[in-house]
Design brief:
The protein is an alpha+beta fold. It is built from 16 helices and 17 strands. The strands form three sheets. Strands 7-11-12-17-16-15-14-13 form an eight-stranded mixed sheet, sandwiched between helices. Strands 2-3-4-6-5 form a five-stranded mixed barrel. A three-stranded antiparallel sheet has the order 8-10-9, with no helix packed on it. Helix 8 crosses helix 10 and helix 8 crosses helix 16. The radius of gyration is 39 Å and the shape is elongated.
């Protein structure tokens, strides 16, 4: 009984599916039609999927063939592996009409990328302040153009800006000038794109570091700019901006012009020691260091050494080198280390021979800077885009005033100034404005400073003991040069040392005093601040912008 009952149940369940009950109706025509449509729809869907799968497989097969293989990627570390002679890489500054149609290779920064659809990629490449547009175009089968695969397009479009890239391509002329780059009439059609030096994420962005406050705008829509401290903390990146590329080329130009002028007039360049056994100047503004088992000082100026060189019968000498001042000043024109440009020369009859030479030197530098860097698209223009300023007004002939004349001009303008006291920074700036109004010049000279405010080695005025044979030069109303006729008589020098408060013991500077015991010609000289010349010529708001790695009381790195 237990075995038969389940069998009957199974038969009862299965029965209706095998045989319809007698008299039951079959599917309707509409149901059959609907069923047919569904079957046709399913058939079409299956066919569509089959075709999609075939297309996908075809694309995968096509992608597996990279027609640009060997034309892009990341290069291995450059270790000078191959010394086979090769042509130099192209400098973008030399690109011209003679390069059209030619294949060139160059290394540059990848400044920016802009993709247009899936087939075009525009790149901006930068060398210093020169930039060119690059075009990468998808092309997998046209033998008349560079072969560029989808894989190459994907690689290039994902490259990180500021990477150093090695590019090969053909220079082509363009129909319309390109606004975004300095090279307006040509672009490079890229055939090879290698990343030679990848970069980490940047702590500051180049567009923000290059932006002026005016371009940043105001209010809620103000764009990001970079503050001075942040800029200096990341100076390596900041130096890449076109503005800084221009500033430091101008700075280099000042040194070249300084040397050119003096070399042509028989001067000899020297390097004087920066570790000294005695202070160059009186006062506390000196860095004291330990020199093995005895104290020493960082040179406050090359003053002592350059006078000794003149005493050694080098009648005309100059130097460009570091100067150290332990002044706890945070002002926009002061640093604890700066670059000095010094001269010293024997005089024939009067110290004004040196003043005139220095005037001619500065005018030569100013005119030279305008000629070398002042043309359309030149470095001066680049600087003014970020730091707007009026052009530095250079006179045909330097304006030279006596210190007493400057005092009189200030008093007439309502300033309360003492006749024999030094000028404050605000007094200097005011005098600069007054001179500009009267003489239409941003450059002038003050001569005959009061003796009591000048160093001990300054020669007194022979006609008025209150004054001295000393002078300062000014740019935009701020001092950039200080100089004088020097005391070249040992006895007078000792006397002048005794008048300093506190007095200077000649035995602490015996080598210096001996130079005049052994006979020195009458001579005069000056110290010029390179950093200030650059700052005031370009009217930069802070001297630190004119110095690659500035030092001040709060900054000793980077």
């Amino acid at each position: 009984m237990s075995e038969e009952q389940p069998q009957k149940q199974v038969e009862n369940v299965a029965g209706p599916s095998q045989e319809a009950p007698e008299g039951a109706a079959g599917p309707s025509k509409s149901a059959l039609k609907k069923q047919a449509k569904e079957e046709e729809k399913a058939k079409k869907a299956a066919e569509r999927k089959r075709k999609e799968d075939e297309a996908k497989a075809a694309r995968a097969a096509a992608d597996s063939v990279d027609v640009s293989s060997g034309s892009y990627g990341i290069l291995p570390l450059h270790q000078s592996q191959d010394d086979t002679p090769m042509l130099p890489l192209k400098r973008l500054a030399t690109v011209g009409s003679g390069d059209v149609g030619k294949t060139v290779s160059f290394r540059a920064r990848l400044a920016s990328l802009r993709q247009q659809g899936s087939k075009l990629l525009f790149c901006e490449f930068r060398q210093s302040i020169v930039s060119i547009q690059g075009l990468l175009e998808l092309n997998e089968n046209d033998s008349g153009k560079p072969l560029v695969s989808k894989q190459m397009m994907r690689f290039c479009s994902s490259s990180i800006p500021e990477s150093l890239v090695l590019i090969e391509g053909v220079i082509q002329a363009v129909d319309r000038p390109i606004q975004a780059t300095t090279i307006k009439n040509f672009e490079v059609h890229i055939s090879k794109f290698w990343v030679s030096t990848p970069v980490a994420p940047l702590p500051i962005q180049m567009d923000a570091a290059s932006r002026s406050e005016e371009d940043a705008g105001e209010g809620a829509r103000k764009l990001v700019t970079i503050g001075l401290d942040t800029r200096l903390n990341h100076r390596v990146i900041d130096l890449r901006t076109p503005t800084n590329q221009a500033i430091f080329r101008i700075r280099s130009g000042v040194k070249h012009l300084f040397r050119d002028f003096l070399d042509a007039r028989g001067f000899v360049e020297f390097e004087t020691p920066k570790l000294q056994g005695a202070m160059t100047e009186s006062g506390a503004s000196v860095f004291k260091v330990t020199y093995f088992d005895r104290p020493a000082f960082l040179a406050q100026s090359p003053q002592l050494a350059k006078q000794m060189i003149v005493s050694g019968d080098f009648d005309r000498m100059y130097e460009i080198g570091p100067v150290f001042r332990a002044e706890n000043s945070w002002g926009p024109r002061h640093m604890t280390e700066f670059t000095g440009m010094d001269i010293e020369m024997a005089i024939d009859h009067h110290y004004h021979e040196v003043v005139t030479l220095l005037e001619d030197l500065l005018l030569f530098i100013f005119h030279g800077l305008n000629e070398r860097f002042g043309g359309p698209g030149g470095e001066i223009e680049w600087v003014r885009k970020q730091w707007p300023s009026e052009p530095f007004v250079v006179p045909e002939k330097a304006v030279r005033l006596r210190f007493s004349e400057g005092i009189q001009m200030l008093r007439e303008a309502g300033r309360e100034v003492e006749e024999l006291e030094d000028l404050s920074t605000e007094d200097e700036k005011m005098l600069g404005r007054l001179v500009k109004e009267r003489y239409n010049t941003d450059f002038f000279v003050l001569d005959k400073f009061p003796l009591k405010i000048r160093p001990f080695y300054t020669m007194p005025d022979p006609h008025d003991e209150r004054y001295s044979n000393s002078y300062d030069f000014f740019m935009r109303g701020q001092e950039i040069l200080s100089g004088a006729q020097r005391v070249h008589d040992a006895e007078l020098l000792r006397h002048r040392m005794s008048l300093v408060d506190p007095p200077i013991d000649p035995s602490t500077m015996q080598d210096y005093v001996n130079a005049f015991e052994y006979g020195a010609p009458p001579h005069a000289g000056a110290g010029l601040g390179l950093d200030r010349i650059v700052q005031f010529f370009l009217n930069l708001p802070n001297i630190r912008l004119a110095t690659p790695f500035p030092r001040d009381p709060g900054r000793i790195a980077p």
